[in-house]
Amino acid sequence: MDAPYAIEMVNITKRFPGIIANDNITLQLKRGEIHALLGENGAGKSTLMSVLFGLYQAEEGVIKKDGKEVKINNPNDANDLGIGMVHQHFKLVQCFTVLENIILGVESTKNGILQMDEAREKVKALSEKYGLQVDPDAKIEDITVGMQQRTEILKMLFRDNEILIFDEPTAVLTPQEIEELMEIMKNLRAEGKSILFITHKLNEIKAVADRVTVLRRGKYIGTVDVATTSKEEMSRMMVGRDVNMVVDKTPAKPKDVILKVENMTVASKMHSNNAVKNVSFEVHEGEIVCIAGIDGNGQTEFVYGLTGMEPLVDGKITLCGEDITKESIRKRSRLLSHIPEDRHKHGLVLDYPLEYNMVLQRYFEPEFTSKAGFLKRPEIRAYSEKLEKEFDVRSGQGPITIARAMSGGNQQKAIIAREVDKDHKLLVAVQPTRGLDVGAIEGVHKQLIAERDNGRAVLLISLELEEVMNVPDRILVMYEGEIVGELDPKKTTVEELGLFMAGAKRNVNIDANTAEIEESETIDTARKEEA
Fold it and tell me: What's the predicted TM-score (pTM) here?
């Protein structure tokens, strides 16, 4: 007789106002397997996992663990059953430290006093074992998104869970961190743990998953073996059509300088050194320039300085010929649009309806506000409906849907719609495809190229190597807060880009006419070391 499934979700149906998020879905997780869950943004993946973790209660269906029916009313019940979850949108207390967040809910006390030493040692051992280095005393509000992700994973491992749910775990990680996480997942599987892995990235599914279950618009499409199914087949199952994996674009035709950054220096919140050091470059209308680098090398602070969220220690920013170094965020937003790195912290007011989020930076304009200062609600709603249709933003109740209730991918699409539609000369796009499915990524890349071809300047900040190599016309590599190289994506390689990102090579020279890169001895040395 076959062994029972580690987890079996049978005929699960979950409804929200205006939408059936999960429509009669059955999912079966074998013991000791990595099972991927694939689907478009809003397909119901996170909802299904939230039902398993006890955050939601299904209206229909049952959950079985090791063949026995169980009732999971809340996350404590899930943890008692050995089920842990790394959430797509982190469940962390911003003003607590990393260590405090990891032990929250399972603290040891003596005479009413927290016993932290033992927990600290366990966290240290786990971080070393799995390569998840963190500063246990750093506050969550002060660390990068990637570091917050590590905290979430350690939180789950700290509880010794045997059923592990990873909800978009790589969305905020660097390529190197993703490779490390893939190895961690394989090691966890080898230890006998069972993993449910939500991702949009087909390469990751091919790299680690044994089987994949595909959802589309809340319905079960099928479960297939990863080894015998191509990425193209999985993509078709997910979106119901063929997806072009290659970015099509004509050569750039740069014109006037739109953005000029001179000797920009921005302080670090984490330590006494500056996070951005003496950075200078230009972006022209009609081109896409990408700042590439491993997460935590000053990209976040650079964007904060550029958009006005942090003051500069030194330097000058000129936008469309106007010095905006000391201008307010609202003044800057007249000339630039900003797709932020953290959509919850800086992109949306989560408890506002979608329609208000669509006009966050424009509500005061005559189109949306009367002379008496009252909002023109019909105009706001009509505008929101137009953007939803144009950018395929899906939500249960349309413009009146509370932003918090939308899937992460559709929250991202809403921000992209708002920022792209706004009148601007410069688009600053920070991780714009984070958490998006392959169909939506294809659409975002087309949109960025359309922005370029319409004469706008695009500054892309990305951690995705594939995106860095395919979308921009020029690549600037940032390492430890400095621009260490400028590369032509048509002439460079992923390996060479990786050397710059790791700081193994600096100060590349590109001939403007021939775009020939001068090789340095550093590359030869690094390659010999690799060999």
Answer: 0.69
